[in-house]
From TrEMBL:
Complex formation: Monomer or homodimer.
Primary location group: cytoplasm
Protein name: Prostaglandin reductase 1
Biological-process GO terms, alphabetical: prostaglandin metabolic process
UniProt GO MF annotations: 15-oxoprostaglandin 13-reductase [NAD(P)+] activity; 2-alkenal reductase [NAD(P)H] activity
Gene source species: Spodoptera exigua (Beet armyworm)
Amino acid sequence: AKKYIVLNPFDGEPKKSDFAIVEEVLPELQENEFLAEAAYISVDPYQRMKLGTSYPCDMIGGQVAKVIESKNPEFPVGSWVMGHFGWRTHTVTKPENEKFSAQKPYLYKLPDFGDLPVSLALGVCGRVGNTAYFGLTEICQPKAGETVVISGAAGAVGSHVGQIAKILGCRVIGIAGSDEKCEWLVKELGFDCAANYKTTDIAKFLEENVPEGADCYFDNVGGELSSTIMSKMNKFGRVAVCGAISSYNETDPEKRKASILQFFFIGKGLKAEGFLVNRFADRNLEGINQNLKWVKEGKLKYKEHVTEGFESAVDAFIGLFRGDNIGKSIVKVK
Ligand code: NDP
């Protein structure tokens, strides 16, 4: 068995030299335990932010794994699980070990995915999908006919949010980091329009293409771009503050400040609410099943950015902060 450890705190962008792969000896299975073999591991922006306080430490992360030995009748050999086991090839565990609290479903057996790939449990039919589903429906609460703007729009969460907003009858505008991404959003996913923030004056783009103003903003990136988008919102608009990836690699604390936003909030009476998907943990399966249903009905499309091989996981992680991925970034273990 192998696992990734993080050798030191990240300094700016994560680097290959921050990580090492080490061998791990697995313990004998005890009563109620099972051995799971990773099939897909998840690559997510939060992994940049939430590591331990002492180093070296294990790399955190979710994975879809198959049970290959078991002393737990609830998790028989052959069953698929989603577990927050970190970046490791094999895990010996039991449900009691994984339940930090009732609010955090870190281990569950996958519902029936039918013909769909089990890797979707890391994306559209998992935590990421629930972030999109609950973040949009509970925090933004868009009504049919309203306009929704999304940053990080071609990523895992953003591309999903836009499609739910379309299902709900909204006008949907995506902001993403390449022309290829914008084309995918409009031509494949049915966004009404999209702009590349790296080459476009976003204030001007919104004035010209969203003259009605935005009622909802699903914010995945924070920083200047979000400030510009919020300046073009309608009075009493709602902002779901989901992520702030534009600042995750920022080493200068001064640059992380977002005081520039306050002016718009006051003048427009905006309502912004931060959230973690864990807040909706007790509705985990409701979100997964709704997203699964939409995928099976063909109403929700998805793209997976698959990196092959356990040894390539760090490349995938670094790529996330360079915008290499369209849709959900995952690693196929073998
Ligand atoms: P993505 O699949 O969106 O991947 C990250 C994307 O972010 C990149 O592809 C890149 O796209 C964009 N990006 C990278 N650097 C910057 C930058 N400096 N400025 C603007 N965009 C940048 O990841 P996820 O969908 O998994 O996550 C999206 C956001 O949601 C993140 O901020 C994440 O932390 C947050 N999140 C929050 C959760 C919650 O519970 N609140 C749960 C899950 C995710 P591009 O080419 O467009 O720049």
